[in-house]
């Protein structure tokens, strides 16, 4: 055993539906503006431009049913419901026709964003991490195995806040599809087992406050429930 100067932190992991096994998380990639209507509401051209990604830390993952602690330094915390893609294989320069062979399964996630801090970072032309990669900012529900549900290409993507529908979209509205995202990422990073990809959010993002109950759902994949502390 290596002689660490202190005990290593626990391995971040995501539950697997119908199993006691856990999916060990390595990296968390997130694609930006992958639904045209969301691009428009954020003030951008919805035309198909090259994709871009940002990272969240694996220890920001939070399981289904959790109480999400409202983060410090913000007064404008936004929800963004997304389908999450979990990889069980990796590689470089993956061709689109083989990209789905890397996928273990799919889940439902929320890309929490400190929107005011993100906006300030954009204004100053600085990185987004302060608005995106904070503690607990990547909740993710149990993963459904692709061997059981297949590879979803259509289905409703929704988020309710206190029982009221706030976000509505469909997987078939994604500008960049899952095989394209995997292939593109693999040109710039060596993908590996344990990588997660948050695949973008539909329109309707907005602020949440302490006491809110959030329920995200992706048809054919699953759900994620959270309470804001």
UniProtKB/TrEMBL annotation:
* Domain Fumarylacetoacetase-like C-terminal as annotated: residue spans: 28-228
Keyword tags: Metal-binding
The organism's place on the tree of life at top rank: Bacteria
The protein's GO terms of the molecular function aspect are:
acetylpyruvate hydrolase activity; metal ion binding
Please state what the protein is called: Fumarylacetoacetase
